[in-house]
Specification:
- The complex is a heterodimer.
- In chain A, strand 25 and strand 26 form a beta hairpin.
- In chain A, helix 7 packs antiparallel against helix 8.
- By secondary structure, chain A is of the alpha+beta class.
- Chain A folds into 5 domains: 29 residues, no CATH class; 103 residues, Sandwich (Immunoglobulin-like), CATH 2.60.40; 146 residues, Immunoglobulin-like (Sandwich), CATH 2.60.40; 112 residues, Sandwich (Immunoglobulin-like); 115 residues.
- In chain A, the strands form 10 sheets. In chain A, strands 12, 13, 15, 16 and 17 form a 5-stranded antiparallel β-sheet that branches. Chain A has a 4-stranded antiparallel β-sheet with strand order 3-5-7-6, with no helix packed on it.
- In chain B, helix 3 packs antiparallel against helix 4, helix 5 runs antiparallel to helix 6 and helix 7 packs across helix 9.
- By secondary structure, chain B is of the alpha+beta class.
- Helix content of chain B is 59%, strand content 14%.
- Chain B is globular and about 70 Å long.
- Chain B has 9 helices and 8 strands.
- Classes of the chains: A alpha+beta, B alpha+beta.
- Chains A and B meet through strand 25, strand 31 and helix 4 of A and helix 2, strand 1, helix 4, helix 6 and helix 8 of B.
- Strand 31 of chain A pairs antiparallel with strand 1 of chain B, so a sheet runs across the interface.
């Protein structure tokens, strides 16, 4: 192919292609401008305003400004612009977003079109958007003017207004409640809001909106908005209660004697007063969902929804699970979305695994997505199909029921090696094993093993408890011994008293060894020492000063058992007698004295000497 | 009087001999159950294993074989239940651990989003091979050693350096062993658990069938029991999801 003038060949095909390639991007660059028009909401009240955004994008660095046509139904004010440049894979693209405040003049539904830009003598038109201006549910301008006037005709510094976007909703249809705090004076700190009562509604806070200014009765008010999504749960007339807001605002300026007051220092130092404003209660008439044309499996979901389904596998082995994720998304009370009915399928065992929600909001409308996970386990091999699933809901705008469905999903089910359809045992596919050799559970054991009582609490055995008790007892014992030892070391008198019996027993043992006529003198001397030392140790005194009389006196002062004093003094007298006239005593006297002394020492243990 | 006592004792011994079969009888019954299993008569094997259990005695092997029989008969819930019981009695047994892991793979619902607590996992790994008795006796031996060292120190009235070292080391190891024992005790005995045994096991948001269904369980899933009310158990799944399930749909471990 070639371009000829007469017989002269001007360009060959390769040259033409080259030129085309060089020219094409330029031509494309001239045509790639797009104008996108969006509104931040689709419907507003007469006293409200919407934000119109016009995004002009393209590869040109010098994007034109859009032309806004004359719109008789609205006042349009520019709110500035923002630009963005991006470079992806060497391709430069830029966009400029122009923002306009749209204030309605009259109620109705108005298309906003003819927004366009002109670039290189070519006109690029934006998409059409429609803004619905509601008379209902919005505080009319007159009403708002009245609200801004106080009882004495003065202009209010602040007031709280509550409006709903729909006073006749269907049950479970969203009603957007907007609280508007109008304030024309300076305020300090953050306001404290008491939320309105919303009995009969399920409510969700949509959040606070960016403050803006509005002129009422020729006074400029700052408007702070807070929005709620309310879903009526019952039919009939429902009331949204008062909301109350408290804030500290600049007080009325009085004539001040303070010389600084004239220079505005009063405000500077924040002479605030507490402001309190309440909204008026609102009544909403909730309509029931119509019975006419209602599908039999309708579950009460209201809004606008879509449904999709996706399987995580297209091909599985027999008895292997396939997870089907069903996603229902749209606007409306997503939490009330019920699970779509699943068909009874002979080829599958179906189990409902879980559900989850993703709640989101768009243009003050609550919505989101609800996901249901269903597990399908194929019973038979082959090409199986999960049929389309249907979901129905009520569309409140169209006031009719709608049905949305998913497409059927095909699953190829393969029969693995070793599959036996007659086996009552659950199939054990090789892929499900823990290691490559394992195709089955490990076999039963032949040895019964050690039997023990069912449910016996381990460690609660006598042996275990004793084993733990022994060291505790040993520790307690050693602590007691140590304390006793320390006590005795600190008190010699007590130590002597405690050791008296032991020493006496030793002396008695020595006396027993001397209990013969040949050693009569030593025997009685030992008996004497045993008795006197015992009494001296008990009283923590020297034994040398003890006489028969002093011993009698000491024992009489204590509550001694009857006859003990006489027995002690009798033995001591016998000892004295034997030591000084030993020849008259026989072996029987010695034995008798030994026995008496042993008895006396035992009896004296009962006497409290201390 | 002595004669009466002898007669009474004899009667009691005879009664005990009649009521409680000797170990050999249990072994015979166990062997017979095993032979039913070998013949793939799993229902008869299960019945016989249970008859041994019903006499109030258990062993890890008995639970293991019973679990195998349940698994082979297609009852995944009871299989997991008895493998778990077997593992509690013999935590180091590899066969039990293998079969339990193997069986769990057949659960139709696999827990997703399970967030493992690293500290808990660490402790579980440490104590898994040991029985509570073993940990308890080790802790007691350390306790014995520590108190013995303290007793000697108190009795001698002065502490030698080796005695101080023994005391300090015993104390440190005792704290560690005591922590592990306590963890094992809480994990195995204080925390009530159950296994879902029913094929259809809806888990509700409240203790009533009129409540919304939170999720659907499946045989073989192990849950922790949080509370009980009106024939329903408030259960916690491994992935921390919770709900109410009817008591008769689960078996307590």
């Amino acid at each position: 192919m070639s371009v000829r003038i007469g017989n002269k060949k001007l360009f060959g095909l390769p040259t033409l292609l080259l030129v085309a390639m060089l020219v094409a991007p330029t031509a494309q660059a001239q045509d790639d401008i797009t104008v996108s028009v969006t509104l931040d909401r689709n419907s507003i009240g007469l006293d409200e305003q919407a934000l119109l955004q016009v995004e002009v994008s393209g590869s040109s660095q010098d994007l034109p400004k859009p032309h806004i046509p004359s719109l008789p139904a609205f006042e349009i004010y520019s709110q500035g612009r923002s630009s963005n440049i991006s470079i992806v894979n060497g391709v430069v693209s830029s966009s400029v977003t122009y923002r306009y405040l749209v204030i309605p003049r009259k109620p109705g539904e108005f298309p906003i079109d003819q927004i366009a830009v002109v670039h290189n003598n070519k006109r690029y038109k934006g998409n059409v958007v429609t803004l619905k201006v509601l008379n209902r549910g919005s505080s009319a301008a007159d009403d708002l003017n009245e609200r801004a006037v106080g009882a004495e005709g003065e202009s209010k510094d602040y007031f709280l207004e509550a409006v709903v976007d729909n006073k006749n909703p269907f049950v479970n249809e969203q009603v957007t409640l907007t609280l508007k705090f109008y304030i024309a004076v300076q305020y300090y700190g953050s306001a404290e809001l008491t939320e309105p009562t919303t009995t009969g509604f399920w409510n969700e806070v949509l959040g606070n909106k960016a403050p803006y200014y509005q002129r009422i009765n020729n006074r400029r008010y700052k408007v702070i908005e807070r929005k709620y999504a309310l879903f009526p749960t019952q039919t009939g007339e429902l009331t949204i209660g008062r909301a109350t807001i408290r804030a500290t605002v600049a007080g009325k300026r009085k004539r001040s004697r303070d010389p600084f007051g004239a220079f505005g220092f009063d405000d500077f130092f924040g002479r605030g007063v507490e402001a309190r404003a309440s909204s008026r209660p609102l009544r909403v008439n909730v309509r029931p969902i119509p019975q006419e044309n209602r599908p039999p499996d309708f579950t009460g979901t209201i809004g606008r929804f879509n449904i999709s389904a996706k399987a995580n596998k297209q091909q599985v082995e027999l008895n292997q699970p396939v997870t089907l994720t069903i996603r229902i998304s749209g606007t409306g009370n997503i939490k009330s979305v019920a699970e779509p009915a699943l068909p009874e399928l002979d080829e599958f065992r179906i189990y409902r695994a879980s559900s989850s929600e993703e709640v989101s909001q768009q243009n003050d409308k609550l919505g989101g997505a609800k996901l249901f996970e269903e597990v399908f386990i194929p019973r038979v091999p082959g090409d199986l199909e999960i049929p389309g699933l249907s979901f129905n809901y009520f569309d409140p705008e169209q006031e009719r029921f709608r049905v949305v469905s998913t497409k059927p999903i095909r699953i190829r089910v393969t029969a693995p090696e070793g599959y036996n359809s007659d086996s009552p045992v659950p199939y054990l596919p090789p892929g499900m094993t823990i290691d490559s050799r394992a195709h089955d559970i490990r076999h039963i054991k032949a040895d019964l093993g050690k039997m023990q009582p069912v449910g016996r609490m381990p460690l609660l055995t006598i042996g275990f408890l004793l084993f733990n008790a022994v060291p505790i007892l040993a520790l307690i014992g050693s602590i007691m011994i140590r304390r006793r030892r320390e006590k005795l070391a600190a008190n010699t008198g007590l130590a002597r008293a405690r050791g008296a019996a032991k020493i006496a027993r030793k002396r008695m043992a020595q006396a027993r060894a001397l209990a013969r006529v040949e050693t009569l003198g030593e025997f009685y001397a030992e008996i004497y020492r045993a008795l006197t030392s015992y009494i001296a140790d008990k009283l923590d005194i020297s034994p040398h000063g003890l006489t028969t009389d002093s011993i009698r006196r000491i024992l009489n002062q204590r509550s001694t058992p009857e006859g003990l004093t006489d027995a002690v003094t009798g033995i001591i007298t016998t000892c004295d007698y034997a030591r000084f006239a030993p020849t008259s005593l026989s072996q029987s006297d010695i034995d008798q004295t030994l026995k008496d002394c042993e008895k006396v020492i035992v009896r004296m243990e009962e006497v409290r000497f201390g | 009087m002595a004669k009466l006592l002898v007669i009474w004792l004899s009667v009691m011994l005879m009664a005990a001999a009649l009521v409680v079969p000797p170990a050999s009888a249990q072994s015979d019954e166990f062997a017979m159950a095993n032979s039913f299993y070998e013949d793939k008569d799993f229902a008869s094997a299960i019945r016989l294993y249970h008859s041994i259990l019903d006499r109030g005695k258990e062993s890890a092997t008995l639970h293991f074989n019973l679990a195998n029989a349940y698994f082979k008969s297609g009852d995944l819930g009871h299989a997991v239940l008895y493998y778990t019981k077997a593992q509690r009695l013999a935590p180091a047994d590899e066969d039990i651990a293998f079969n339990l892991d193997f069986a769990k793979q057949f659960s139709r619902v696999q827990m997703e989003g399970v967030q493992l607590n690293p500290i808990r996992t660490f402790f579980e790994t440490l104590v898994r091979p040991y029985q509570l008795q073993q940990l308890g006796w080790i802790t007691s031996a350390l306790f014995f050693m520590l108190l013995g060292a303290l007793t000697v120190r108190i009795s001698l009235d002065h502490g030698t350096s080796w005695l101080r070292i023994v005391t300090a080391v015993s104390l440190v190891i005792l704290v560690a062993a005591g922590s592990l024992t306590t963890f094992k005790y809480r994990h195995d005995f204080l925390t009530p658990r159950a296994v879902i045994i029913s094929e259809e096991s809806p888990v509700y948001t409240g203790a009533s069938e009129q409540s919304e269904i939170e999720l659907h369980g499946a045989p073989g899933l192990i849950v922790e029991i949080l509370s009980e009310s009106d024939g329903f158990l408030n259960v916690l799944f491994e992935n921390k999801r919770r709900g109410w399930i009817k008591t008769d749909l689960v078996a307590r471990i």
